[in-house]
Amino acid sequence: MTEVFLERSFPGGMTRDGVLDMAVRANNCFDLHRVAWQGSFLSIDGRKLFCWFSGPDAESARIALRETGADTTRLWPGTVHHAPEAPPAANVLVERSFGEPVTVEEI
Asked: Rounded to whole angstroms, how far apart are CA atoms 73 and 32?
């Protein structure tokens, strides 16, 4: 399975219930394309949403998300790195920009 990530923007803001509602409405489409929503991080002001999906490949996720009306211009495959001794609920999202590509080992 491939891990896929999508960054979305909501100029008017989004709520936690709104995110859950989107996930429920997309469920049939996700099932059809074998995509599973793993979770999302919503910014405090509700204007940015970062979603994590798994599926057979990035294109399956892209198709499923487009069919639900999502803008997929900021969708990419990636990896999840679990902290070795962190409790399961200790999720953290870090956004970084690099002038040149780097490996996880270099970070």
From this structure: 22
**Residue 20 pLDDT more than 90?**
no
The answer to whether position 69 is within a domain reads yes
How confident is the model over 53-80, as a mean pLDDT?
Answer: 91
Residue 103 covered by a domain: no
The CATH number assigned to the domain holding 56 equals 3.30.70.3090
pTM for the full predicted model: 0.76
Q: Residue 41 burial by CB count (10 A; 0-12/13-18/19+): exposed, middle or buried?
A: middle
Average pLDDT over every residue of 50-78:
92
Q: What is the residue range of 49's domain?
A: 2-78
Residues 31, 55: Cα–Cα separation, whole Å: 10
Nearest to residue 65, comparing CAs of 4, 11, 10, 2?
4
Our count of domains for the chain comes to 1
Around Cβ 37, how many Cβ atoms within 10 Å? 20
Percentage with pLDDT > 90 across the chain: 43
